[in-house]
Amino acid sequence: MTPTEATNDDRPALPERAQALDLLRGMIRIRRFEEKCAELYSAMKIRGFLHLCIGEEAIPVGVMPTLVPEDAIVATYREHGHALARGMPMGAVMAEMYGKAGGCSRGRGGSMHLFDAATRFYGGNAIVGGGLPLAVGLALAERMQGRPNVAACFFGEGAVAEGEFHESMNLAALWNLPVLFLCENNLYAMGTALQLSESNTDIHAKAASYGMTSEAVDAMDVLAVGAAARRATEAIRAGEGPYFLELRTYRFRPHSMFDPELYRNKEEVEAWKQRGPIVTFSQRLREAGLLDDAALAGIEAEVAREVDAAVAFAEASEWEPVGDLARDVYTEEDAA
Amino acid sequence: MTAQTANGGTIALTYREAVRAALREALEADPRVFLMGEDVGRYGGCYAVSTGLLAEFGPERIRDTPLSESSFVGAGIGAALGGMRPIVEIMTVNFSLLAIDQIVNNAATIRHMSGGQFSIPLVIRMATGGGRQLAAQHSHSLEGWYAHIPGIRVVTPATLEDARGMLASALACPDPVLIFENALLYNDKGEIPADAGAVDIDRAAIRRPGRDVSLITYGGSLGKTLAAAESLAGQGVDAEVVDLRTLRPLDDATILGSVRRTRRAVIVDEGWRSVGIAAEIMARIMEQAFYDLDAPVARVCSEEVPIPYAKHLEDAALPQTDKIIRAVEHLMGNHG
């Protein structure tokens, strides 16, 4: 499948320079963090599964500014970008990759299970489709407690084949719940192309069939993602019920570090890379006179320092004592 | 069917009414509590447990769901994460298999996987057990399966007091609690103190003290086991009956204390024999009380068949009073 080109006229207008550079910095931050993760995986500092979102950075960076701290977030096992864009400390995320006690999940979760109560980040869920019902329930809790907050749920297009997707669409629409469904359609469920797994590949139409507002978005454009998420969250906060965004994107890296990528050709990947969210947004900013080499170097240097600090934090963090292995299987009420 | 006040400070009621009274009390006591499940509202509950509650508490708190076990159980988990105290009703344990992803992969894991940041104060009630000629998709006893899973609690109220009192304790528990109500018990009738309230969900109970053999059971088999003990008393065998009440965590102290006194044990479990809760209890006795035994530990379980429809076949498949008596006679005869 080849990328579809948006014409220049379709693109949302650029924001002011500071805001534009924030978006660029946000995407570069995720990119450089994940590149470092891949390196550390090869160095065997990080083990288990490592799913990189390189190529998909416009989604978390576009969506998160439309959410408020009180909103709840559910993500998938490819959630480093979401965690960082939500504001989780990079050091705690990196330490979790290391499996250290200083990790955001105390080394119990790893790359696929980043959690953070402070930012209402309810995980990294590694069962495809398994997070959607949680988001429906979080939204129900907001509604029943009279709070105006949104439950934002990220999931891949592979989840659309799961029963839990359809059950959750139905329940959210039936109960008019404040759920923002964010389908990251990167065209491959692991190695199975969308057209090999869906009878109807127009995913946003499936959501619309449940009676909720649904849009397909060019998710290689951070501004398009942001504008769509703004429309969606405003509608949800106005009480209009759930809203669905099909975010059309592409994963530049293999599914995980074990993936030999037999299912797609290099030409296809290269074509999508030409439309990469960082390269295209940088180019647009340059053309508009909002970015020059010095500014970009400044961003890169700032991000490099943060990534270095995160690695140092993870290296310095302690290992959880084996004596605490069974901790937090159940709530220890008197421990607090 | 309302509970009637009798003299002596007791009330006469059915097991069904005891559960309903517990639900009503919980809904009155805490605005965060709500009941959600298939046909709990307008229909009144498939076993008529929640009859009348919709009129009392309204459709927000007595919430009829679509036939989508995975999403409404998952929504219960999400709502619990979001600050509510949901009670999710699943019609029968067989249907809970449609939600097992949510129960096993989310409810049981999130506390640990998040490094202790998030607890799931969720109660799931479901009917279990055979004996009603409902055949193999409505009659199984899978509570032992759930007892395999760290991170959840499994309770099995067998008496009116427990039917009345376990729900409040389950709701007070910060972790997921599964309550298994054996469907044959709903019509059990008796008297309980008018002020009956919360009971512990941590300990087994000795329902009949005895010296010669420990009959260890739970749920729908308690009545059959007590009947067997009465019959055995006529033969001069003084059987002690232990009601496990909670299958996870098992109360080793009460189980082993009983076995050490009587030096013989028979486990009665409506689950299948292979790899079941009975096997687990036998293993614990071997590990911890082997030298206190005067005879091998025995068990009476369901036969290894899907529970059949025809009454004579179903009766033959399930633990029955005469089978329990024969097992004890065998134990005493061979080894007394």
Describe this protein's structure.
The complex is a heterodimer of chains A (336) and B (336). Chain A is globular, with a radius of gyration of 19 Å. In chain A, the strands form two sheets. Chain A has a six-stranded parallel sheet with strand order 2-1-3-4-8-7, with helices on both faces. A two-stranded antiparallel ribbon of chain A has the order 5-6. In chain A, α6 links the parallel β3 and β4. The termini of chain A are far apart. In chain A, α1 crosses α12, α4 crosses α12 and α5 packs parallel to α6. Chain A has one domain: Rossmann fold. With 336 residues, chain A is an alpha/beta fold. Chain A contains twelve helices and eight strands. Chain B is an alpha/beta fold and 336 residues long. Chain B has two domains: 185 residues, Rossmann fold, CATH 3.40.50; 131 residues, 3-Layer(aba) Sandwich (Rossmann fold). Chain B is 37% helix and 22% strand. In chain B, α1 packs parallel to α8, α9 crosses α13 and α10 packs across α11. The longest helix of chain B has 15 residues. Chain B is globular. The N and C termini of chain B lie far apart (49 Å). At the A-B interface, β2, α5 and α6 of A face α3, α5 and α6 of B.
What descriptive keywords fit this protein?
heterodimer; A: 336 residues; alpha/beta; Rossmann fold; 6-stranded parallel sheet; globular; B: 336 residues; 2 domains; 7-stranded mixed sheet; 15 strands; 37% helix; oxidoreductase activity (chain B); thiamine pyrophosphate (chain B); THDP-binding (chain B); Pyruvate dehydrogenase subunit beta (chain B); Transketolase-like_Pyr-bd (chain B)
CATH architecture of chain A: 3-Layer(aba) Sandwich
User: What general outline of chain A do the C-alpha atoms trace?
Assistant: globular
The number of domains of chain B is 2
**What's the CATH topology label of the largest domain in chain B?**
Rossmann fold
Q: How would you sum up the major sheet of chain A?
A: 6 strands, parallel
Compressed to H and E, one letter per element, the order of chain A equals: HHEHHEHEHEEEHHEHEHHH
CATH superfamily of chain A: Thiamin diphosphate (ThDP)-binding fold, Pyr/PP domains
CATH homologous superfamily classification of the largest domain in chain B: Thiamin diphosphate (ThDP)-binding fold, Pyr/PP domains
pLDDT average of chain B, as an integer? Answer: 96
Radius of gyration of chain B: 20 Å
> Portion of residues in helices of chain B?
25-40%
Secondary structure class of chain B reads alpha/beta
* SSE run of chain B: EEHEHEHEHHHEHEHEEEEHEEHEHEHH
Strands of the widest sheet of chain B, in order across it, are: 4-3-5-6-8-7-13
Proper CATH architecture of the largest domain in chain B: 3-Layer(aba) Sandwich
What is the topology, as strand order, of the major beta sheet of chain A? 2-1-3-4-8-7
Which runs of chain A of at least 5 residues are low in confidence (pLDDT < 50)?
none
Count of helix runs of chain A = 12
Q: Given the helix and strand composition of chain A, which structural class is it?
A: alpha/beta
